[in-house]
Design a protein that fits this description.
The structure holds two protein chains of two kinds. By secondary structure, chain A is mainly α. Chain A is built from four helices and no strands. Chain B is mostly helical. Chains A and B meet through helix 1, helix 2, helix 3 and helix 4 of A and helix 1, helix 2, helix 3 and helix 5 of B.
Chain lengths: ~110, ~130
């Protein structure tokens, strides 16, 4: 009997959905909104501060994992979403969205690992 | 729509089928949340990449994000929050829990996830406020 790879892929998809549900709102609030709204100092995200934050390899690995799962989860859902919006070109959609996710993964690896 | 001979033909609205009903519209807004979550993930990837290139590149990305993309960030926040609420809302169906043979009420599973979500959000916010270092 052959062993299906689907449970692994689906568990990654579910992990991505849970990670984005838990973290994306607060991350958007912190990174994109808090400083222009005046809730946080711009120095919070200063170059030196970010460098020392990412100095810990474990932190880099966790950030890599969070964004990796989020990117691939979104890419898969976008493939479904364009179908629901009436675009009937699944292979092209899959190719485009997974390519974007793959490029993002490479950039992320270059930046963090 | 009903034909003269009594048969029913489903109207074809390939691109606009979701505009007629509140439930379909909510479903599509949930679907659309992946666009904003994905886009913001790419923004973070690009920011980390710029950070790895040096201080000038990083600060350029940061000021661009804050000066020109506040509306985009607000939209991302709204859609991401919508994804969170709807994601936790279906956890009793996606992950039913039994304790001692009795199913745990859905409201408890949803409530626990919402509380965990708020706790995680507050912790992350406080960590950032305390300084990224």
């Amino acid at each position: 009997m052959s062993v299906s790879k689907k449970p692994i892929i689906w568990s990654l998809f579910a992990a991505g959905g849970t990670i984005t549900a838990m973290l994306t709102p607060v991350l958007v609030l912190l990174i994109g909104i808090a400083v222009p709204m005046g809730w946080l100092n711009a120095e919070t995200f200063g170059y030196i501060e970010m460098q020392s934050f990412l100095g810990n390899p474990l932190v880099r690995l966790i950030i890599f994992g969070i964004i990796f799962l989020s990117v691939w989860h979104s890419a898969h859902r976008m493939r479904i979403t364009v179908h629901d919006f009436g675009l009937r070109a699944d292979m092209i959609a899959a190719y485009i969205f997974y390519s974007i996710a793959a490029i993002a993964t490479i950039l992320l690896a270059v930046a963090l690992l | 729509m009903k034909q003269a001979n009594g048969t029913y033909i489903r109207p074809k609205k390939r691109f606009t089928w979701w505009l007629g009903s509140g439930n379909y519209f909510q479903y599509m807004m949930r679907e659309l949340s992946s666009l904003f979550i994905g886009a913001f993930s790419l923004v973070m990837v690009w920011g980390l990449y710029r950070l790895s290139q040096g201080p000038a590149e990083y600060l350029l990305w940061l000021s661009n994000l804050w000066d020109n993309f506040l509306l985009f960030s607000l939209l991302c926040f709204i859609f991401a929050t919508y994804h969170s609420i709807t994601w936790f809302w279906v956890t009793p169906k996606a992950m039913p829990i039994q304790i001692g043979g009795k199913p745990l009420p859905g409201a408890v599973i949803i409530g626990a996830h919402i509380v965990a979500w708020l706790a995680v959000s507050v912790i992350v916010w406080c960590l950032a406020m305390g300084g990224m270092s």
